[in-house]
Design a protein that fits this description.
This protein has 1 helix and 5 strands. It is of the alpha+beta class. Strands 1, 2, 3, 4 and 5 form a 5-stranded antiparallel sheet that branches.
């Protein structure tokens, strides 16, 4: 019996990992798009996983919410923080630290 439970846990963990890889790629695209839209530099071309939890979408369905952080710059001489909230595979919010508009 414990073998079946172990297999189920391994399969569930693998599915979560693959789903997280897809969500991370979508988060990178969302961060890059937000930076381009505001004429900012998306630094390091990557995001960093910060948090995972369950949340409900607009239709009341339970989905996985992931928060990724990234860094951007308006001048190239500094680093500012941003965050992307992913609900499932879809970007829900992109937060940018206040920066100076030039």
């Amino acid at each position: 019996m414990w073998e079946a439970a172990a297999i189920i846990l391994i399969v569930a963990g693998t599915l979560l990992w693959v789903d997280s890889l897809r969500a991370r790629e979508r988060a990178i695209q969302a961060g890059r798009s937000a930076c381009e839209r505001h004429a900012l530099q998306f630094l390091d071309e990557t995001v960093s996983f910060a948090r995972l939890r369950l949340a409900r979408d607009e239709e009341g369905r339970l989905r996985i919410e992931r928060i990724y952080t990234f860094e951007f710059s308006e001048t190239g001489n500094n680093r500012r923080n941003g965050a992307i909230v992913m609900l499932g595979q879809d970007p829900k919010d992109v937060h940018l630290e206040p920066y100076r508009v030039q």
